[in-house]
Design a protein that fits this description.
heterodimer, A: alpha+beta, B: alpha/beta, BirA Bifunctional Protein, domain 2, eight-stranded mixed β-sheet, three-stranded mixed β-sheet, about 40% helix
């Protein structure tokens, strides 16, 4: 059984809205959908990040590692928004449940 | 030299945004000089690349007031455009600097322009242009296609009631997080200045501001055949598509668009 959670977080620059479909028994992320009014360059890095989060354990360190790796690989420029902002919103999305 | 384009399609916001991408890509191929574009929409909401229409726009209100929604290729937040809102877009040759630099540097063209019309404008929180405690402009930037690009909208005499009616305000309380968000402190420039301002005066001020910033003389020009051709193709392939404007199609889902455009540009 999968659940879907939602969380919203205000970074210094931009609001991040996040929906996560996850497997609560195996504690893994199945699908992540992030939207918002922030800036990231290159823009495609967010799409890559969402794909790479599939199958990752629901664990702050694991999530942070995936984000760090994508940001390094794509030399991501992210004014006013930090890796921890993304970790927070993704992790907190797995704490609750909303109607899809 | 700094080239200035006044090309606009106010009745067709999606063509306006298709042209916005087109002239940047034509600049990236060095067919044109650094270019400042000044343009308007009659009645539209423009959402950021990472946003979704359903989350940002009150669709009932948009349909009631015939507001068309279009998604742009840059990040940032949703803005409401009518003829009282002036958009500018500047593209220059690129380099190895990051997005923060592009904001910090290019936004000064707007600050000089606002000073010229008598406003004490300053930059706040990376990319908000404020006068006193009021936000009068939001900006977005990208380094896509290897050029420095910044565009923004400036509130001169916009219908703020309509703006508040069509843009959805997030339920989250921002103030208790200690974040200074000026989105809900927007104000029209005519109300700050206490006088009307003509479109020509704004164009002159923007031309002066960006010319001063870049240290280049400016000239007014018409779009090239190539810019029209690329804009037309981008309109058909990207900006007229509902899945794009709703916020679901991503660049990586549309690589065929880039291939097609690059083919036109390398002929």
């Amino acid at each position: 059984m999968s659940k879907t959670g939602f969380s919203i977080h205000k970074a210094r620059k931009g609001l991040i809205k996040c929906r996560v479909e996850y497997d609560p028994s195996r504690k893994i992320i199945l699908k992540v959908d992030i939207t918002g009014d922030f800036f990231l360059y290159p823009e495609d890095s967010l799409s890559v990040l969402m794909d790479r989060l599939k199958g990752v354990s629901i664990d702050r360190n694991e999530i942070a590692k995936v984000i760090r790796d994508v940001f390094n690989e794509y030399k991501v420029s992210h004014p006013g928004i930090e890796i921890d902002d993304f970790v927070k919103v993704i992790y907190e999305s797995t704490l609750g449940e909303v109607d899809a | 030299m700094l080239r200035i384009l006044l090309f606009e399609t106010p009745e067709d916001p999606r063509m306006n945004l298709a042209f916005e991408e087109a002239f940047v890509r034509v600049r990236a191929h060095n067919y044109i000089d650094d270019t400042l574009r000044i343009w308007r929409n009659r009645n539209a909401v423009v959402i950021g690349y990472f946003q979704r229409m359903s989350e940002e726009v009150d669709m009932g209100s948009a349909s009631e007031y015939n507001v068309e929604v279009v998604r742009r290729f840059t990040g940032g937040g949703a803005v409401y455009h009518d003829l009282g809102n002036i958009n500018y877009a500047i593209v220059t040759s690129g380099g190895d600097r990051d997005l923060t630099y592009v904001f910090k540097y290019l936004i000064n063209g707007l600050v000089y322009a606002l000073n010229k019309i008598g406003l004490e404008a300053k930059l706040e929180n990376i990319n908000d242009v404020v006068v006193g405690s009021h936000k009068i402009s939001g900006t977005a930037a990208s380094l896509r296609w290897g050029v420095y690009f910044l565009h923004g909208s400036v509130l001169f005499n916009t219908d703020l009631n309509l703006l508040y009616s069509v843009l959805r305000v997030p339920k989250i309380k921002l103030i208790d997080k200690g974040v200074s968000d000026v989105k809900y402190r927007v104000k029209n420039i005519v109300d700050i200045l206490g006088r009307d301002i003509r479109y020509n005066e704004i164009i002159d001020a923007l031309a002066y501001g960006f010319s001063k910033l870049l240290g280049k003389e400016y000239y007014f020009d018409m779009p090239s055949k190539l810019e029209y051709e690329v804009a037309r193709a981008l309109y058909d392939l990207r900006y007229s598509r509902e899945e794009w404007n709703e916020g679901y199609l991503r660049f990586i889902d549309m690589k065929y668009v880039d291939e097609y455009i690059e083919e036109i540009l390398s002929k």
